[in-house]
Specification:
Blueprint (H helix, E strand, L loop, with lengths): L1 E12 L2 E13 L4 E6 L5 H8 L7 E6 L2 E2 L5 H8 L2 E5 L10 H11 L4 H14 L15 H13 L5 E5 L7 H18 L2 E6 L2 H7 L2 E6 L2 E7 H4 L11 H6 L8
The protein binds adenosine-5'-triphosphate.
Adenosine-5'-triphosphate binds next to strand 2 and helix 1.
């Protein structure tokens, strides 16, 4: 479903270039819930933004659902991007637009006619359990409800891939569990592949089928729930692998 090959990204800083993502390769199969974990500044969000080309890689290739995004002309890239949903820590809703209008925006951008938009907005709001909030504004909703609206908006164009940048970091533990339940449901019932950037080990332990670990822009480890077994939520010490699986292992190169 998703393949990154030797992807790098540097930013020009005052004292010279800074490499945020350094020669990263990654394969994510259809149906996975893939976690990307690592310390602050490791390059996780930048890597996520490279997947839908919100950031252009300096080097390397990005393939999503068989399309080599890094080679597509702009118009085709815009079309392919519509099949990649994204949600953020701070929800990024349009504050002066109602819930239904927020969900309708990506449909308008995709050129869906009005009747189709109305139907799809209703479906998406029903899916996230917010049909009764269609005419509310974001400021009238709780954090968890805002994230549900953001999820409904991300689902509007039937994405095959959902990118989540710290989706629960602004939420309390109960609401976090709730939103993780929605993400699991999207994966199970719609077959959407999910990539989640997080620094929360419990998010990984709760829903991820596999994890990659980033450190200083590089991918330093990869393991799956099937192969390693994940511990239940709770605090443990050691490397990311030890804390998630309870076991040590050979670092991935
Ligand atoms: N647009 C940018 N311009 C300059 N530097 C940037 C830019 N985007 C990211 N960086 C730098 O790249 C590094 C990696 O940032 P990134 O946000 O990807 O890390 P992260 O692992 O997601 O961290 P966090 O968990 O704190 O969000 C950081 O040092 C950051 O300051």
């Amino acid at each position: 479903m998703l393949s990154l090959s030797q992807v790098s990204k540097s930013f020009a800083l005052k004292d010279g270039p800074y490499t945020a993502v350094d020669n990263v390769s990654l394969e994510v199969k259809t149906g996975a819930i893939h976690g990307i974990i690592g310390a602050s500044g490791a390059g996780k969000s930048t890597l996520l933004r490279l997947i839908n080309l919100l950031e252009r890689p300096d080097m390397g290739t990005v393939t999503v659902d068989g399309k080599l995004l890094t080679e597509l002309p702009d118009k085709e890239l815009r079309q392919q991007r519509q099949r990649i949903g994204m949600i953020f820590q701070q929800f990024n809703l349009v504050g002066n637009a109602t819930v239904s209008r927020n969900v309708a925006i990506p449909l308008e951008l995709a050129g869906v006619p009005r009747a189709g938009r109305i139907k799809r907005v209703q479906e998406c709001l029903q899916f996230v359990g917010l049909a009764d909030k269609a005419n509310h504004y974001p400021a009238q909703l709780s954090g968890g409800q805002r994230q549900r609206v953001a999820i409904a908006r991300a689902l509007a164009n039937n994405p095959k891939l959902l990118l989540c940048d710290e989706p629960t970091s602004a939420l309390d533990p109960g609401t976090t569990a709730d939103i993780l339940g929605v993400l699991r449901h999207i994966n199970d019932s719609l077959g959407v592949t999910v990539v989640i950037v997080t620094h929360e080990l419990d998010v990984v332990r709760s829903i991820c089928s596999e994890v990659s670990v980033m450190e200083s822009g590089r991918m330093v480890d990869f393991f799956s729930r099937d192969e390693a077994g994940f511990l239940p939520p709770g605090s443990h010490s050691g490397s990311y692998r030890e804390r998630i699986t309870g076991r040590t292992g050979e670092p991935y190169v």
